[in-house]
Write a structure and sequence with these properties.
binds adenosine-5'-triphosphate; 555 residues; Glutamyl-tRNA Synthetase, domain 3; 25 strands; binds magnesium ion; Ribosomal Protein L25, Chain P; single chain; Rossmann fold
């Protein structure tokens, strides 16, 4: 069994680098940052990056900033800025400084002017398509733009006019002057600034030119004194450009970029673009739909920050491509809730049972443990009377052999209550079973020490007269196949049956349940009270995870 760690104690290659850098005196203090673009909600992949950055700085008594990479106004929005902050905090992390790339737009502009003055950048009039054609390929060098050798004065003038709004989107770009024959395509005079006449969620209409990620990111890191700028492996080939910007812009602080492999999880979409499509097309209710792999979706489904952090630590940090089994995520939430969640009874698909020898109008209270594995959670009392609900699945009129639950003539134990025996089956005009008539044996009360005879099945139930109506939402993966295994159109791969809604009952004491309360329902798994759909009339439960899995991450 995995013991949950409180500290990020296991080692990884980035931690070793940090430790060496501190020991050798290369850096005095470690500073990291988590740099999301506010163009969607965070997903479980971001949780890995967040946990890595914050815990690393924590362990070495350094700092972590939350920096919004808000350089693409068309796709960005304050709704996302707020949701991202909420998610980072909920995961259990507090940033040292909250920053925005847009805080540095003026400095970035001035550094670009410096590049022009040094002959390291020029304004190009080529269209995006022309630039693409002239960029060359992996095997062929690119060609110089006809505007590459413009004089400094002309470049300064054009760049100022770009800023002043004299040109339309796409008419000019500022490019770094590096090497059109470089084997690294990222160094073939990459664009540093583009024109976008768009309203920005923070700077409004102050700017109509915006820095590119590869230019903005290193400058932001350097301004904030970030020492270890950690990103995913697809940026490895951008590192020479990152270093070029730091050097040529004459930044005083010299951050370094380190890359690790992104998190992939089976059956899970891990791209904001596709997640946004699911929201926009109405496939899911919202970004925090419990089927979404977003942090807010996982929260609403019933995941805890402890489980997500433990998962992120367990998967570790490396440079090797891998896909993590989704059952590993489930393993960690079961581990976390096992001793924390009260264990109660819920009937998801009710079948009424009348106990014919129990006096009408009478009822009693029975003791039930709140968590058989955690005595400290104490005991509650549940009502029992003449009519109860059991699960439709727990009765079969013509059972196969080895079926130990209810069938005509058979006796089972009601969890925390009595033995009951099925005497009669009541059907409607179509032959559907609508009610069972049973007898109970008062001698067999749970906890009474009764040893007279044994039964092989124990089933759960709730008292019909006091049960609280509830809705249960069960989830299946949103995608029918595993990501990457199919070229089918994304929307054709969607599972039409990812949500099943059932109407049933829970124990009367659950009337008080509030959004985000978590329970283990006997035999059904862990459930979370949905904070959006629960009303005074109806409690809605999301299933976090079923009870069992054969999966063991340590196996
Ligand atoms: P997406 O493609 O989903 O939009 P992104 O990388 O464009 O992801 P950003 O907001 O730019 O999203 O990411 C912020 C940080 O989170 C980056 O440092 C990025 O490397 C990291 N990150 C994003 N996805 C993953 C992932 N699957 N695993 C680990 N880290 C990730
Ligand atoms: Mg991005």
């Amino acid at each position: 069994m995995v013991v949950m760690e409180n500290k990020a104690s296991s080692s990884n290659f980035i931690k070793n680098i940090v430790s060496d850098d501190l020991q050798s005196g290369k850096v005095a203090e470690i500073v990291t940052r988590f740099p999301p673009e506010p163009n969607g909600y965070l997903h479980i992949g971001h949780a890995k990056s967040i946990t890595l950055n914050f815990e690393l700085a924590d362990e070495f008594k350094g700092k972590t900033n939350l920096r919004f990479d808000d350089t693409n106004p068309v796709k960005e929005d304050t709704e996302y800025v707020e949701a991202i902050q909420e998610d980072v905090r909920w995961l259990g992390f507090e940033w040292d400084d909250l920053r925005f790339a847009s805080d540095y737009f003026e400095e970035m502009y001035q550094r670009a002017v410096l590049l022009i003055q040094k002959g390291k950048a020029y304004v190009d009039d080529l269209s995006a398509e022309q630039m693409r054609e002239m960029r060359g390929t992996l095997t062929q060098p690119g060609q110089n733009s006809p505007h590459r050798d413009r004089g400094v004065e002309e470049n300064l003038d054009l760049f100022a006019r770009m800023r002043a709004g004299e040109f339309k989107d796409g008419e000019r770009v500022l490019r770094a002057k590096i090497d059109m024959a470089s084997p690294n395509i990222n160094l073939r005079d990459p664009a540093l600034y583009r024109i976008a006449h768009a309203h920005h969620h923070r700077t409004g209409n102050a700017w109509c030119i915006y820095p590119m990620y590869d230019y903005a990111h290193p400058i932001g890191d350097a301004i904030e004194g970030v020492t270890h700028s950690i990103c995913t492996l697809e940026f490895e080939d951008h590192r020479p450009l990152y270093d070029w910007v730091i050097e040529e812009c004459e930044m005083a602080d010299k951050p370094h970029q380190y890359e690790f492999a992104r998190l992939n999880v089976t059956n899970t979409i891990m791209s904001k673009r596709y997640l946004k499509m699911l929201v926009d097309k109405g496939v899911v209710e919202s970004w925090d739909d419990p089927r979404m792999p977003t942090i807010s979706g996982l929260r609403r489904k019933g995941f805890t920050p402890e489980a997500l952090r433990a998962f992120c630590r367990e998967i570790g940090v490396s440079r090797a491509y891998s896909v993590v089994d989704e059952r590993m995520l489930e393993f960690f939430i079961r581990e976390d809730l096992k001793l924390k969640a009260p264990r109660t009874m819920a009937v998801l698909q009710p079948l009424k049972v009348v106990i014919t020898n129990y006096p009408e109008g009478q009822s009693e209270l029975l003791d039930a443990e709140n968590n058989a594995e955690n005595e400290a959670m104490g005991i509650r009392q549940i009502p029992f009377s003449r009519e109860i609900y059991i699960e439709q699945d727990d009765f079969m009129e013509n059972p196969p052999s080895k079926y130990f639950r209810l069938f005509p003539g058979n006796e089972v134990r009601l969890k925390n209550a009595y033995f009951i025996k099925c005497e009669e089956v009541v059907k409607d005009a179509n032959g559907n079973v609508v009610e069972l008539r049973c007898t109970y044996d008062p001698e067999t009360k749970s906890g009474s020490g009764f040893t007279g005879r044994k039964v092989k099945g124990t089933i759960h139930w709730v008292d019909a007269s006091q049960a609280v109506p509830a809705e249960f939402r069960l989830f299946e993966p949103l995608l029918l196949d595993e990501e990457g295994d199919s070229d089918k159109e994304f929307l054709d791969r969607i599972n039409p049956e990812s949500l099943t809604t059932l109407q049933g009952f829970v124990e009367p004491n659950m009337k008080e349940a509030k959004g985000q309360d978590k329970f283990q329902f006997f035999r059904h798994g862990y459930f979370n009270v949905d904070p959006k759909h629960t009303s005074p009339e109806l409690v809605v439960f999301n299933r976090v995870v079923s009870l069992k899995s054969s999966f063991d991450p340590k196996a």
